[in-house]
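Sequence of YcnI family protein (Microbacterium luteolum).
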Amino acid sequence: MSSNNNTRTRARRVAITSAAVLGGAVLALAVPTMAAAHVGVSPDELVAGDHGVLTFSFSHGCEDSPTTSLRITMPEGLASVAPTLDGDWTIDVERGDDGLVSAVTYTALTPVPIDLRGAVSMSVGLDEDTPSSLAFPVVQQCVEGATEWTQLAADGEDPHSLDSPAPVVTVAEATADGHGEHGAAETTTDAAAPVAADPLPTVLGAGGLVAGIAALVVAVLAYRRRA
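Predicted 3D structure, token representation.
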């Protein structure tokens, strides 16, 4: 009878240990996935008075629901907007009373699954007096639900701390030769460059993994003391 009780006790401890390890692993994997969800823009810097192609990329944003459309609102200070024709999307252009493009909606012919990266692009022209920062609020519509990427960081606030930040492009002043600090060639080629990795998901993932390991150590020590 005592042997059976000991066997059940050991089995229960093993189950607790396994659950602790599994919980830590799930946290390590799930937290970065949640934190990495956002709509990014590349390049994130243009030159006043210049032209450039902006690419808006996204992954999941409505939990487990595929993305069906992106509605991007144009900020003031753009002289022209020309969405890029893409066979995977239909494009709807809205214009204001001044005739300028006020919003562009890209609707996917087939909903974009949560495990795939999607992207849309447009050519924009800037005025000489374009503001130093251009925010592009985005509404990501999904099969179920939607996410509004519209938050803007206050002065001194880290944009990575926001839950749903809007994509932002910094505008550099044009120099005497008509280019910005980094030159026109870099402005055009950066459109194809990958978006810089956000360090926050890595930090959170490491924290989840450490939590799982700590739970395993505690469970093993408890098992050894009671065995």
